[in-house]
Write a structure and sequence with these properties.
This is Nucleoporin NDC1. By secondary structure, the chain is mainly alpha-helical. The chain is built from twelve helices and two strands.
Length: 310
Protein backbone atom coordinates (compact mmCIF):
# COMPACT_ATOMS: atom_id res chain seq x y z
CA UNK A 1 0.00 0.00 0.00
CA UNK A 2 1.43 3.38 -1.00
CA UNK A 3 2.01 5.78 1.85
CA UNK A 4 0.61 9.30 1.92
CA UNK A 5 2.78 12.15 0.57
CA UNK A 6 3.02 13.76 4.00
CA UNK A 7 4.15 10.49 5.56
CA UNK A 8 6.83 10.10 2.91
CA UNK A 9 8.08 13.62 3.67
CA UNK A 10 8.32 12.95 7.41
CA UNK A 11 10.06 9.61 6.80
CA UNK A 12 12.54 11.29 4.47
CA UNK A 13 13.32 14.04 6.99
CA UNK A 14 13.84 11.51 9.80
CA UNK A 15 16.08 9.35 7.60
CA UNK A 16 18.32 12.29 6.73
CA UNK A 17 18.53 13.35 10.36
CA UNK A 18 19.40 9.83 11.50
CA UNK A 19 22.11 9.63 8.82
CA UNK A 20 23.53 12.98 9.92
CA UNK A 21 23.63 11.85 13.56
CA UNK A 22 25.44 8.62 12.65
CA UNK A 23 27.89 10.55 10.44
CA UNK A 24 28.78 12.89 13.30
CA UNK A 25 29.24 9.90 15.61
CA UNK A 26 31.75 8.42 13.16
CA UNK A 27 33.56 11.77 12.81
CA UNK A 28 34.01 11.94 16.59
CA UNK A 29 35.61 8.49 16.73
CA UNK A 30 39.23 9.61 16.09
CA UNK A 31 39.02 12.06 18.99
CA UNK A 32 37.61 9.51 21.43
CA UNK A 33 40.08 6.88 20.19
CA UNK A 34 43.03 9.20 20.73
CA UNK A 35 41.75 9.97 24.23
CA UNK A 36 41.57 6.24 24.94
CA UNK A 37 45.12 5.64 23.65
CA UNK A 38 46.40 8.63 25.61
CA UNK A 39 44.86 7.48 28.89
CA UNK A 40 45.90 3.85 28.40
CA UNK A 41 49.58 4.83 28.24
CA UNK A 42 49.81 6.98 31.36
CA UNK A 43 53.38 7.92 32.20
CA UNK A 44 53.43 10.87 34.59
CA UNK A 45 57.21 10.79 34.93
CA UNK A 46 57.74 11.16 31.16
CA UNK A 47 54.94 13.43 29.88
CA UNK A 48 56.65 14.37 26.61
CA UNK A 49 57.31 10.76 25.64
CA UNK A 50 53.78 9.90 26.77
CA UNK A 51 52.25 12.43 24.39
CA UNK A 52 54.62 11.54 21.52
CA UNK A 53 54.00 7.81 21.78
CA UNK A 54 50.24 8.41 21.84
CA UNK A 55 50.42 10.54 18.69
CA UNK A 56 52.60 7.99 16.92
CA UNK A 57 50.17 5.21 17.82
CA UNK A 58 47.39 7.07 15.99
CA UNK A 59 49.28 6.59 12.70
CA UNK A 60 49.76 2.86 13.26
CA UNK A 61 48.15 0.50 10.75
CA UNK A 62 46.53 -1.43 13.61
CA UNK A 63 44.92 1.79 14.84
CA UNK A 64 43.61 2.62 11.36
CA UNK A 65 42.05 -0.83 11.05
CA UNK A 66 40.54 -0.55 14.54
CA UNK A 67 39.02 2.79 13.58
CA UNK A 68 37.40 1.20 10.53
CA UNK A 69 35.94 -1.58 12.68
CA UNK A 70 34.73 0.93 15.29
CA UNK A 71 33.12 3.04 12.56
CA UNK A 72 31.27 -0.04 11.33
CA UNK A 73 30.12 -0.76 14.89
CA UNK A 74 28.83 2.79 15.37
CA UNK A 75 26.97 2.71 12.03
CA UNK A 76 25.46 -0.67 12.92
CA UNK A 77 24.31 0.47 16.36
CA UNK A 78 22.94 3.76 15.05
CA UNK A 79 21.02 2.04 12.26
CA UNK A 80 19.85 -0.90 14.37
CA UNK A 81 18.54 1.24 17.24
CA UNK A 82 16.38 3.39 14.96
CA UNK A 83 13.85 0.53 14.95
CA UNK A 84 13.42 0.75 18.74
CA UNK A 85 12.80 4.47 19.26
CA UNK A 86 9.32 5.54 20.31
CA UNK A 87 7.44 8.65 21.47
CA UNK A 88 5.50 6.66 24.09
CA UNK A 89 7.44 5.65 27.22
CA UNK A 90 7.13 2.06 28.40
CA UNK A 91 6.81 1.84 32.19
CA UNK A 92 6.29 -1.70 33.61
CA UNK A 93 3.62 -1.83 36.29
CA UNK A 94 5.43 -4.50 38.32
CA UNK A 95 8.74 -6.31 38.59
CA UNK A 96 7.24 -9.36 36.90
CA UNK A 97 6.27 -7.20 33.94
CA UNK A 98 9.78 -5.75 33.90
CA UNK A 99 11.28 -9.24 33.93
CA UNK A 100 8.94 -10.31 31.14
CA UNK A 101 9.95 -7.33 29.01
CA UNK A 102 13.60 -8.38 29.30
CA UNK A 103 12.81 -11.70 27.60
CA UNK A 104 10.74 -10.15 24.83
CA UNK A 105 12.03 -11.53 21.48
CA UNK A 106 12.87 -8.10 20.06
CA UNK A 107 14.72 -7.08 23.19
CA UNK A 108 16.55 -10.40 23.32
CA UNK A 109 17.72 -9.75 19.76
CA UNK A 110 18.79 -6.26 20.83
CA UNK A 111 20.82 -7.73 23.72
CA UNK A 112 22.48 -10.39 21.56
CA UNK A 113 23.46 -7.86 18.90
CA UNK A 114 24.92 -5.46 21.47
CA UNK A 115 26.79 -8.26 23.22
CA UNK A 116 28.39 -9.27 19.90
CA UNK A 117 29.25 -5.65 19.08
CA UNK A 118 30.66 -5.33 22.60
CA UNK A 119 33.08 -8.19 21.86
CA UNK A 120 34.19 -6.43 18.66
CA UNK A 121 34.67 -3.15 20.50
CA UNK A 122 36.67 -4.90 23.24
CA UNK A 123 38.85 -6.54 20.58
CA UNK A 124 39.56 -3.09 19.14
CA UNK A 125 40.57 -1.82 22.57
CA UNK A 126 42.98 -4.74 23.05
CA UNK A 127 44.57 -3.84 19.71
CA UNK A 128 44.83 -0.18 20.72
CA UNK A 129 46.29 -0.94 24.15
CA UNK A 130 48.70 -3.60 22.88
CA UNK A 131 51.19 -5.25 25.20
CA UNK A 132 50.01 -8.31 27.08
CA UNK A 133 46.38 -7.68 26.03
CA UNK A 134 46.95 -7.75 22.27
CA UNK A 135 46.68 -11.41 21.20
CA UNK A 136 44.72 -14.48 22.21
CA UNK A 137 47.95 -16.47 22.55
CA UNK A 138 51.14 -15.48 24.33
CA UNK A 139 54.48 -17.14 25.10
CA UNK A 140 54.98 -18.53 28.55
CA UNK A 141 56.92 -16.42 31.02
CA UNK A 142 59.18 -19.41 31.63
CA UNK A 143 59.61 -20.83 28.11
CA UNK A 144 61.32 -19.28 25.14
CA UNK A 145 59.22 -17.76 22.38
CA UNK A 146 58.13 -20.34 19.87
CA UNK A 147 55.25 -22.42 18.67
CA UNK A 148 55.75 -24.92 21.50
CA UNK A 149 55.70 -22.11 24.09
CA UNK A 150 52.37 -20.47 23.11
CA UNK A 151 49.68 -20.48 25.76
CA UNK A 152 46.23 -19.01 26.21
CA UNK A 153 46.36 -15.30 27.07
CA UNK A 154 43.63 -14.99 29.70
CA UNK A 155 44.04 -11.20 29.87
CA UNK A 156 42.78 -11.03 26.28
CA UNK A 157 39.92 -13.41 27.10
CA UNK A 158 38.97 -11.36 30.15
CA UNK A 159 38.61 -8.17 28.08
CA UNK A 160 36.67 -9.88 25.27
CA UNK A 161 34.18 -11.51 27.61
CA UNK A 162 33.97 -8.20 29.44
CA UNK A 163 33.00 -6.52 26.17
CA UNK A 164 30.10 -8.97 25.78
CA UNK A 165 29.03 -8.32 29.38
CA UNK A 166 29.20 -4.55 28.94
CA UNK A 167 27.24 -4.73 25.69
CA UNK A 168 24.53 -6.87 27.25
CA UNK A 169 24.35 -4.63 30.32
CA UNK A 170 24.05 -1.57 28.08
CA UNK A 171 21.13 -3.22 26.26
CA UNK A 172 19.35 -3.94 29.56
CA UNK A 173 19.84 -0.36 30.74
CA UNK A 174 18.70 0.90 27.36
CA UNK A 175 15.16 -0.36 27.90
CA UNK A 176 14.97 -0.18 31.70
CA UNK A 177 15.88 3.53 31.62
CA UNK A 178 13.62 4.19 28.60
CA UNK A 179 16.54 5.43 26.52
CA UNK A 180 14.53 4.63 23.40
CA UNK A 181 11.94 7.24 24.40
CA UNK A 182 12.17 10.47 22.38
CA UNK A 183 11.14 13.49 24.42
CA UNK A 184 10.92 16.79 22.57
CA UNK A 185 12.36 19.77 24.49
CA UNK A 186 10.00 22.61 25.33
CA UNK A 187 12.72 25.18 24.59
CA UNK A 188 14.55 24.66 21.33
CA UNK A 189 18.31 25.26 21.21
CA UNK A 190 20.98 24.93 18.58
CA UNK A 191 22.28 21.39 18.18
CA UNK A 192 25.82 22.45 19.15
CA UNK A 193 24.64 24.01 22.42
CA UNK A 194 22.60 20.92 23.34
CA UNK A 195 25.55 18.65 22.58
CA UNK A 196 27.99 20.86 24.50
CA UNK A 197 25.71 20.95 27.54
CA UNK A 198 25.32 17.16 27.61
CA UNK A 199 28.86 16.08 26.67
CA UNK A 200 30.41 16.25 30.13
CA UNK A 201 27.40 14.50 31.68
CA UNK A 202 27.73 11.67 29.13
CA UNK A 203 31.47 11.29 29.84
CA UNK A 204 30.89 11.27 33.59
CA UNK A 205 27.96 8.84 33.33
CA UNK A 206 29.97 6.48 31.11
CA UNK A 207 32.90 6.42 33.54
CA UNK A 208 30.70 5.81 36.59
CA UNK A 209 28.57 3.18 34.89
CA UNK A 210 31.69 1.42 33.61
CA UNK A 211 32.88 1.15 37.21
CA UNK A 212 29.67 -0.54 38.33
CA UNK A 213 29.57 -2.80 35.29
CA UNK A 214 33.17 -3.83 35.98
CA UNK A 215 32.33 -4.62 39.59
CA UNK A 216 29.47 -6.88 38.52
CA UNK A 217 31.59 -8.45 35.80
CA UNK A 218 34.44 -9.27 38.19
CA UNK A 219 32.00 -11.02 40.52
CA UNK A 220 30.57 -13.00 37.62
CA UNK A 221 34.01 -13.89 36.26
CA UNK A 222 35.16 -15.00 39.70
CA UNK A 223 32.47 -17.68 39.80
CA UNK A 224 32.06 -18.53 36.08
CA UNK A 225 35.29 -17.38 34.48
CA UNK A 226 36.48 -20.91 33.93
CA UNK A 227 33.64 -21.53 31.43
CA UNK A 228 34.77 -19.17 28.60
CA UNK A 229 38.42 -19.89 29.39
CA UNK A 230 37.94 -23.65 29.05
CA UNK A 231 35.82 -23.28 25.90
CA UNK A 232 38.30 -20.99 24.13
CA UNK A 233 41.22 -23.13 25.29
CA UNK A 234 39.62 -26.27 23.87
CA UNK A 235 38.48 -24.67 20.61
CA UNK A 236 41.87 -23.06 19.88
CA UNK A 237 44.01 -25.88 21.33
CA UNK A 238 45.78 -23.50 23.68
CA UNK A 239 46.79 -24.57 27.15
CA UNK A 240 46.73 -22.27 30.15
CA UNK A 241 50.09 -21.00 31.39
CA UNK A 242 50.54 -22.40 34.89
CA UNK A 243 53.07 -19.68 35.75
CA UNK A 244 50.37 -16.97 35.48
CA UNK A 245 47.62 -16.84 38.16
CA UNK A 246 44.13 -17.60 36.85
CA UNK A 247 41.87 -14.57 36.66
CA UNK A 248 38.97 -16.36 38.36
CA UNK A 249 40.90 -16.14 41.65
CA UNK A 250 41.40 -13.23 44.02
CA UNK A 251 45.12 -13.03 43.28
CA UNK A 252 44.39 -12.91 39.55
CA UNK A 253 41.55 -10.38 39.69
CA UNK A 254 43.38 -8.02 42.07
CA UNK A 255 45.59 -6.77 39.25
CA UNK A 256 45.43 -2.92 39.16
CA UNK A 257 46.70 -2.53 35.55
CA UNK A 258 44.19 -5.11 34.30
CA UNK A 259 41.32 -3.52 36.21
CA UNK A 260 42.28 -0.07 34.93
CA UNK A 261 42.42 -1.23 31.31
CA UNK A 262 39.09 -3.06 31.70
CA UNK A 263 37.47 0.02 33.24
CA UNK A 264 38.92 2.30 30.57
CA UNK A 265 37.79 -0.06 27.79
CA UNK A 266 34.29 -0.16 29.26
CA UNK A 267 34.22 3.64 29.50
CA UNK A 268 35.33 3.91 25.88
CA UNK A 269 32.63 1.45 24.77
CA UNK A 270 29.86 3.18 26.68
CA UNK A 271 31.01 6.65 25.66
CA UNK A 272 30.99 5.91 21.93
CA UNK A 273 27.56 4.28 22.15
CA UNK A 274 26.08 7.00 24.36
CA UNK A 275 27.40 9.70 22.03
CA UNK A 276 25.64 7.97 19.14
CA UNK A 277 22.43 7.87 21.19
CA UNK A 278 22.80 11.52 22.24
CA UNK A 279 23.43 12.80 18.72
CA UNK A 280 20.48 10.83 17.40
CA UNK A 281 18.13 12.35 19.99
CA UNK A 282 19.45 15.86 19.30
CA UNK A 283 19.00 15.57 15.54
CA UNK A 284 15.63 13.80 15.60
CA UNK A 285 14.00 16.14 18.13
CA UNK A 286 15.12 19.29 16.35
CA UNK A 287 12.26 21.55 15.33
CA UNK A 288 11.01 21.25 11.74
CA UNK A 289 8.94 24.04 10.23
CA UNK A 290 6.15 23.17 7.82
CA UNK A 291 4.93 25.99 5.59
CA UNK A 292 1.22 26.67 5.91
CA UNK A 293 0.74 27.39 2.22
CA UNK A 294 3.07 27.44 -0.79
CA UNK A 295 2.43 29.30 -4.02
CA UNK A 296 3.24 26.28 -6.18
CA UNK A 297 0.91 23.29 -6.29
CA UNK A 298 3.62 20.66 -6.76
CA UNK A 299 5.06 21.52 -3.31
CA UNK A 300 1.73 21.16 -1.52
CA UNK A 301 2.83 17.84 0.05
CA UNK A 302 5.22 19.76 2.32
CA UNK A 303 2.50 22.03 3.73
CA UNK A 304 1.30 21.59 7.30
CA UNK A 305 -2.39 20.86 6.46
CA UNK A 306 -1.42 18.04 4.08
CA UNK A 307 0.99 16.49 6.59
CA UNK A 308 -1.57 16.60 9.40
CA UNK A 309 -4.31 15.01 7.31
CA UNK A 310 -1.98 12.22 6.11
Amino acid sequence: MESAPGGRLVSKVLSWRAAAAIAWSVLLLPLSTFSFIFLSRISLLHPVQWATDSLQEMYNSYTAFSLLVLAGIVVTIGTFNTEFYTVEPSIPCSRIALLGSVFHPQRLLHSVVHAALGVLTAWCTTVLVGGRYHLMSAPSSQDSVGVEGLYLNEFHVFLLVGGAFFGYSYSLRYFINNMNYLSFPAIQQFKYLRFKASLWLVVKYSAVQSFYFLRNYCLLYYFLGYVPRAWISASMSLQKDSSVPALDTLSGLLDPPLLYVAWLSGTFLLLTWYLTWLLFKIFITEVYQFPVQLPFGEDADRCLPRVLTS
